[in-house]
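Mods, move this if it's the wrong board.
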Amino acid sequence: MKKLKTGNFDDLVIKDFKKHPELIKDFKKFIVKQYKQDKDLSIFKENLKIIMQSERGLTTKISKQTKIDRAGIYRILSSKIMPRFDTFEKLLGAVGYRINIQLA
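Not the wrong board. Structure tokens:
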């Protein structure tokens, strides 16, 4: 019996987003909503990485715009390190997010 090659889940999601880029906007909204509920920054960063890998040329564009090299972007999104606030704000802005800080 031949074994099916399935790949990992992120690769399947990225492939689907490449076929249907209109779904990315909804995914961006979803990950913000999810972050507001669970406050898990590591999952939020992993999902940002999926968005960047799905949109052709986005990582290169963001690298030029933020002056963070591509390896640095992936290191920020993949690791448990927390970048400086201004660096993360630049990265989020380049993907289409704005940080809104309010007094509680």
